[in-house]
Amino acid sequence: MKSLGRPLGRPGPHRAAQLSVSPNNPPPLNSILRRVLHLVLLPGGLYLILFVLLTDRLILRFSTRLWGVSQDVFQQAWTLWWVNHAVTQLHQHPLYTMLVEYPMGAWLWGHSLMLFNGALGIVLSPFLDLVQLYNTLVIFGFVASGVTAFWLSYYLTRATVASLVAGFIFTFSHYHFAHLLSHLDLVSMEWLPLFILCWFALLQNPNWKWGAGAGLSLGLVLWTHAYYFFYCLLAGGLVLGWFVLVKRDAQFLIRGKYPQAFAAFTIVALLTCGPLVGGFMWSSVGERIVGHDPTQNSLDLVALVVPARIWRFHPTTKPYWASWKGNLSETNAALPLAALAVAVGVWVKHRSIRDPNLGLWYILLLFFGVLSLGPVLHFNGDVVQGVPMPYALLETVLPPIRTMGVPGRMIVMSLLALAVINAFGLRALLRGGLWSRVLAVLVIGLIVIESLPTTIATMSPVVPAYVNALRALPDGAVLDRVGLATKPGIPPGQVMYYQTVHQKPIAFGYLSRVPAVVVAQNTRISEQFAQGQFDKLCVEFGLRYLVVPPNEFNDTTRYEPIYRDAEAIIFDLAAPQSLPNPIICRGSR
Predict the structure, then answer these.
(1) Which pLDDT value is given to residue 7?
(2) pLDDT per residue over 250-292, tens digit each?
(3) Does residue 34 sit within a domain?
(4) Within-domain flag for 363
(5) Which of 417, 442, 527, 556 is 20 to 30 A from 145 via CA?
């Protein structure tokens, strides 16, 4: 039977630290320390230093600013707070909340709940405030993503320097920096390479440890983002298909230690993924989930290779990206041209690489790259009609992905595959002659230049005085028209951030996805407010406190303000002044 590559634990051409050891022959302590130094401290320390350097003076705003610049930053800061609040204060699971979308509340199966980050938040919250916690998890996402990509590349190549560059390509990518501006959950892509590593190792060298590792890492992927979980399922299927194709024998999966390895994977995956997957499917039965439009959230074909606004030198490429559709976070995903050139070179010289699994990484690169273009082809801002796109077929075959609606994010898997291919290519160059090593240094320098981000924007976490006033009031649900304002500087997600201070239930909210019935409820609340039916807001929906800008509500004949400043007026709808019998507001206690 043809070998599928060097089994884990067998040394390569040069002696190097290994990723596993035999349980019957445990390594001495100094060997363990060397492995920790080589596999954790070296890459982790390097990527931490590079993050600080590449992001300019961002670290100086660690305690004073939220890193990013969109309403999603406030939303995801709220998510960290909510997981901690639900577990430590309310003593309940965090998958359902009554604090937003009041009075109906919302299941959070379709929301980017970031349970892994939330769990870290519970541990770190006694030592960090919410701003520091959010920024710490951003740093962790960048450093850990580089480390796990390094592990995957090192397992395949046993080349330290080439694998460090591969980790750099993956974590300091335009995709990663672009989502730093908005999406902490998408910044947390550290478990993707680890799952691919464990799954690949399971198929190459089956044992129960790799099976359990694959199941646990898949669970960690799901506990950071459902999109990444879906991408891992697709990638895992492709890797499995590749092994079947190369071996030309599908029955190898039921021989030897494979049943044991797959049993371990299945058990651990069911324990870590089953409850969340089952809950999402249960909540989706008979209920339409309002999500994103995939046509508006696909990558432009040119965006695959042209650096855009997230690049430090983006003015030079503005004639290309100025006409692209979509927001900054979703359209900046260019793959480094130098890394693509290495990939072309590796393919041309693949016979000299002599790795039987090299073609797998090209399949992953192309498969997810094409899917990231979405159901309709966009070329430099224009829609190209009549071109059938595989993503449209995937929507037909797998209807659940219609609730996702952001195919452009699939490029993260292409990015990982490209990083792995570059590890092979740079290994060959660095082991060659003088001019090969000079070429390797030149390529690495170009990759760094292509990866340089522009200045990362940040947001102030300053909380208005009226929010602290709400905190001091008796219990009651809030309709905060100031926090929900859509004028510049006050995005809708800010109302959720304010809730982390006053901790009262709020109407509306800013969740990733909500059921259509919640959307209908919010429409009725908006209509009753517009019609001035504030008693119904109180009686029917239990909204006790109404917060409005000073110029939006001047009728004080029925309601006397209980708080007023230059930014907001607060009314207690449960205590109108001119009614003979006060309203009984079910939102007050």
Answers:
(1) 41
(2) 888 889 999 999 999 999 999 999 998 888 777 666 565 556 7
(3) no
(4) no
(5) 442
pTM listed for this prediction = 0.90
Nearest to 292 by CA among 389, 177, 375, 185: 375
Three-class secondary structure assignment of 421-441: HHHHHHHHHHCCCHHHHHHHH
User: Distance between CA 43 and CA 165 in Å, rounded?
Assistant: 10
3-state SS record for 319-369: HHHCCCCCCHHHHCCCCCHHHHHHHHHHHHCHHHHCCCCHHHHHHHHHHHH
Quick one: CA dihedral 342, 345, 347, 351, positive or negative?
A: negative
Count of all residues that appear for the chain in the document: 589
Question: Taking the C-alpha atoms of 85, 61, 138 and 124 in order, what is their torsion angle to the nearest 10 degrees?
Answer: -40
Asked whether the beta carbons of 309 and 278 are under 8 A apart, the reply is no
Do 466 and 568 sit in the same domain of this protein?
A: yes
**419 occurs within a structural domain:** no
Alpha carbons 111 and 107: distance in angstroms, whole number: 8
In whole angstroms, give the CA distance from residue 478 to residue 564. Answer: 16
Are 589 and 470 in a shared domain? yes
Residues facing 458 on adjacent strands:
67
Q: Find tokens 């039965």 and name the residue.
A: 285
DSSP state of 476: B
Determine the structural domain holding residue 223 and report its residue range. Answer: 190-290
Q: Which residue among 290, 320, 351 closes a domain?
A: 290
DSSP E strands: which ranges in 421-542?
A: 458-459, 477-480, 514-515
Q: Report if residue 561 sits inside a domain.
A: yes
Residues 100 and 200 in one domain: no
What residues are paired with 191 via a beta bridge?
none
Residues 559 and 467 in one domain: yes
Domain count, the chain: 2
